[in-house]
């Protein structure tokens, strides 16, 4: 009989992501060089020697910049996911619980946002607000919240008429208490899984905006903008663009794999299957 | 009832593929014109593809009408129009459409035109045609009007007599500016901004931001153009252009990124490079209180590493600058001095001016506020973002915080006054004469004196310059004027551009010219 490795996989991936996050948190302390110190005498050195990943056209150490860029990219995507998860869930719960005209209006607004191509909207918003990583996060948050509102709303609506909610109401619980004690814990699962799965996507979108010059502004180390500024050297000094490129690739892959496994672990059907197997 | 509904379904099923087919066909229709031009190319005609970064509205070159903004640059660059006089490789004036000139008195110039020139419209070039063109120029073009100060033009056969309101010593130089391209005003300006010039090629299709199509001028007066058709393509992204050049889609290109030039260093490619008077410089905003302090300005000038900027970041494609004019001019860099890169000295100056790092954040401050410079620049000249980022790092060493604002929309920040230093690129002596730079940038009434700079000494020197006819005297005055603005540190000149044109296999006759705007000539050929 095949063993189920999902839990193990989840643990390993969590450790890897944990390491990545630690590297991002302590980036200031682990970088071998100052990622912003220019040294034009040593510009565009190939990887190896004193600079493990080489240097860019300003003579800045690529390894230090990739590590520092990780801090910017990972933290801004985590911040973004946190924002849209919180805001989206709050709106969704409110709509699902209250219903009525506000629900209709808010859901039509979310329909509009869902119908819009996300990146195009983000580019427009970031273009109006100007560069800066915070502006990029705000721009992407504007377009990404409806997904969570939809999930939360449908869950709450399904739950609203459930016997245990009715019981809670009969025993004198107020709206706030019902939402907090009974509803939020029950919808947390699907929302969280969507959130973890979204981190990779959001990271790509933030890097994409920065690549277009609408996210992080130079000299801030950020993977997308690093790739953009190295673009013209793809053929002559490829390490300048490959280093941040692979960093994005591995990080996004890691977060996506983690998201998948977390979904598998949280999947109630999987537990049932296992129980049946155990029986 | 049921049958009826069935019919509707069928109708829908037929309609849908019909719509799809129509969509597909219309898509093909758009593409078929392109294939047609390709077909022509293979029929033994010589077709040339030229890539350029600057033929677009952002550079104020929206068409080829010389009387419209900087569009004259496109007109002359692509061999559509020609001016009365032209520049040699040493930037000395030579006759072109005119055979000779004579100054009868301080305000009167007698110009004799060649008698074998015809416009592409078929009209012969005579003094009357030139008069019509210049009359229109000064009535619609503010910059030309200010430069030329024309009072009256009279035409007699091939002799054009220009009377100016006051002595304009550099009149012949100004007439050789791209706005001075002589076009047939009877043929007029078409809706898309096309004109009838006298050059070796005739524009048939002008599309702003996209490019234009040129065909051979069969009746060209100075030899036979060797190519039948030239497609000029505007490719603003340097990397896209690099790839187009590599794939053979383009035969030649101007404006490739420095980082890609090494890719074209070997055969079959050839690179033609030349020093131009296009300079990259920073302009100080005198409305900023901190920059009103002479010592702060000097400290800033001393914290820009021009040598390494040109050597490393521009890959040697340029020279570090002192003033606006490169060393090959008589009034160029060899005759003036600017503060050298010296972070130590800069720090000392800042301290003398009362700027000290009292809170230990690495930036100097005064009254609790860091010395922050809002550095406004734009990206369409690839050197400018590099300069900004380099300056940001070297100024940080000295303790000055630089906030870079690099935007195609830089003008709106300048208009709103949200800037401290504006870094731009400008061809400082497009006509070989020095006065132009000062009248455009440094005087009280200059349109590009964005920072409100004023110097009594400079104003006095300009009064002298206005009426100095002797070239040597003008050069000497220019040196003094340059030194004045450098001593005031009102401008910081970082580097002069080395302009490079890359030619592909078999391309001959494409040479970069120090004036920046002679590119496609009658000599251009492809074998």
UniProtKB/TrEMBL annotation, chain A:
Residue ranges constituting the ABC transmembrane type-1 domain according to the UniProt record: 74-259
Coiled coil: none
PANTHER family: D,D-DIPEPTIDE TRANSPORT SYSTEM PERMEASE PROTEIN DDPC-RELATED (PTHR43386:SF1), OLIGOPEPTIDE TRANSPORT SYSTEM PERMEASE PROTEIN APPC (PTHR43386)
CDD domains from the UniProt entry: TM_PBP2 (cd06261)
Subcellular location: Cell membrane
Keywords: Cell membrane, Membrane, Transmembrane, Transmembrane helix, Transport
Pfam families according to UniProt: BPD_transp_1 (PF00528), OppC_N (PF12911)
Entry's transmembrane regions: 74-97, 109-126, 237-259
InterPro entries assigned to the protein according to its UniProt record, in alphabetical order: ABC_transport_permease (IPR053385), BP-dependent_transpt_permease (IPR050366), MetI-like (IPR000515), MetI-like_sf (IPR035906), OppC_N (IPR025966)
The protein's name: ABC transporter permease
Family (UniProt): Belongs to the binding-protein-dependent transport system permease family. OppBC subfamily.
UniProt xrefs under NCBIfam families: Opp2C
Its membrane topology: Multi-pass membrane protein
From TrEMBL, chain B:
Domain Solute-binding protein family: from-to ranges: 92-442
The keyword Hydrolase appears for this protein: no
Spans through the membrane: none
Keyword list, A-Z: Signal
InterPro entries, per the entry: Peptide/Ni-bd, SBP_5, SBP_5_dom
This protein's record includes keyword Signal: yes
Residues in the signal sequence: 1-27
Protein name: ABC transporter substrate-binding protein
Taxonomy of the source species: Bacteria, Bacillati, Bacillota, Clostridia, Lachnospirales
